[in-house]
Design brief:
GTP binds at residues 158-161, 208-216. By secondary structure, this protein is of the alpha/beta class. The chain has helices at residues 21-32, 136-149, 166-174, 193-199, 214-222, 272-278, 280-286, 303-309, 315-364, and strands spanning 6-8, 36-44, 47-52, 55-60, 79-83, 92-96, 102-106, 114-119, 123-129, 152-158, 181-184, 203-207, 247-250, 256-259. Strand 5 (79-83) and strand 6 (92-96) form a beta hairpin.
């Protein structure tokens, strides 16, 4: 194997990147075929960086994956089977193991395909800055994505030193994050960092907009200034994208950090279960509505509307729920339409093939 095959070596093993008995069991058929286990550290078009027990190497992605299925290209966090390098060719990605969890959003192009932001994650740290006015609608979006992923969300309030009353802000955020721990932190003072370290476990992804303090928070977890940071703009509190790509980094105390670029758009992609978790109080009240298909708009006997009128649920919260439901329904309809189109195209291909076969047979007579 050439020296250029390995990007760099490191003292870590696959276990440091989360390899366990479940991974070994899933990989067993590939091991019998002479393949080697790996975890995708960074994915690019046509190639990826993957960690193995021998170090981190660059592997080719044959055919740049199946373009008809947007979830098929490898993603940071994927467990994979690599075909070892030969004297004539470098290592090649052979298969991606089934994902245990996946953080998926709609693509920026607004097509029916989803974009996988991270795979096989255990904890989603939804980062919300206290240095700027709170935007609960954005927090609800991120939590819906996080719950839908199958991982455990944790809301991390950053920059508490820039907030006049951080505990009041935490109580406000807790109202829109049922079933989720809400932690107040400050990288400048060290507030809450010990508690945060104790709560986060496994493979941890930092999710949030630019300027929320994800990279600064990541550096605190890593114990070194490894992730690039930049100050936010004073005029609007927004930050620049200091993280240019997603990558995996082992944490000194155990676990793996997956840093992501700041997200300008956080579109839902078929996240019905995530919405039910994020708006658990509305979902619970809906069980008492007179009609099982109640839309909570103007129906008589609606328990949700009664709760809003009684002041138990803010109108803003219900409006956000309706908005995200509409967006999710639209995403689902686009997905269904694409699947119908694919099925129709397959039928047409079969018909054309049969017609050509019959025409060939007739010419042979």
């Amino acid at each position: 194997m050439s020296q250029s095959t390995f990007r760099h070596a490191q003292p870590y093993s696959l276990a440091d990147y989360g390899w366990d008995e479940a991974c070994a069991h899933a990989f067993a058929p590939h091991r019998d075929a002479g393949l080697i286990p790996a975890r995708i550290v960074r994915a690019e078009r046509g190639s990826c960086e993957a960690v193995t027990d021998a170090g981190i190497l660059r592997a080719e992605i044959p055919g740049a994956a199946d373009q008809k299925n947007a979830l098929s290209p490898p993603c940071t966090g994927d467990w994979a089977a690599l075909r070892p390098a030969t004297t004539n060719h470098g290592p090649v990605l052979h298969a991606v193991l089934e994902r245990r969890t996946a953080l998926v959003r709609s693509t920026a192009s607004r097509t029916s395909r989803g974009q996988v932001l991270a795979a096989n994650i255990d904890t989603v740290a939804v980062t919300v800055s206290l240095g700027t006015p709170l935007k609960h609608g954005r927090t609800e979006r991120m939590l819906s994505l996080a719950w839908e992923s199958g991982a455990q969300p944790v809301v991390v309030l950053t920059k508490a030193d820039q907030c006049a009353d951080a505990q009041l802000a935490a109580a406000e955020v807790s109202e829109v994050a049922p079933g989720t721990d809400v932690l107040v932190t400050s990288a400048a003072t060290g507030l809450g960092l010990d508690t945060l370290t104790a709560v986060l476990n496994g493979t941890i992804v930092l999710l949030g907009p630019s300027g929320a303090g994800k990279s600064t928070l990541g550096n605190q977890l890593l114990g070194e200034d490894r992730l690039a940071t930049a100050a936010v703009r004073d005029v609007d509190g927004k930050g620049r994208h200091t993280t240019a790509w997603r990558e995996l980094i082992p944490l000194p105390g155990g676990g793996v950090l997956l840093d992501t670029p700041g997200l300008r758009a956080i579109g839902l992609h078929y996240a019905q279960d995530g919405l039910e978790q994020s708006f658990a109080e509305i979902d619970r009240l809906a069980q008492d509505c007179r009609f099982t298909d109640c839309a909570h708009v103007s129906e008589p006997g609606c328990a949700v509307l009664a709760a809003v009128e009684a002041g138990e649920i803010p109108q803003r919260r219900l409006d956000s729920y309706h908005q995200l439901l509409r967006e999710n329904a639209y995403a689902a309809s686009r997905t269904d339409a694409r699947l119908r189109t694919d099925r129709e195209a397959a039928k047409k291909d079969i018909t054309r093939h049969l017609r050509a076969t019959y025409q060939f047979r007739e010419r042979q007579l």
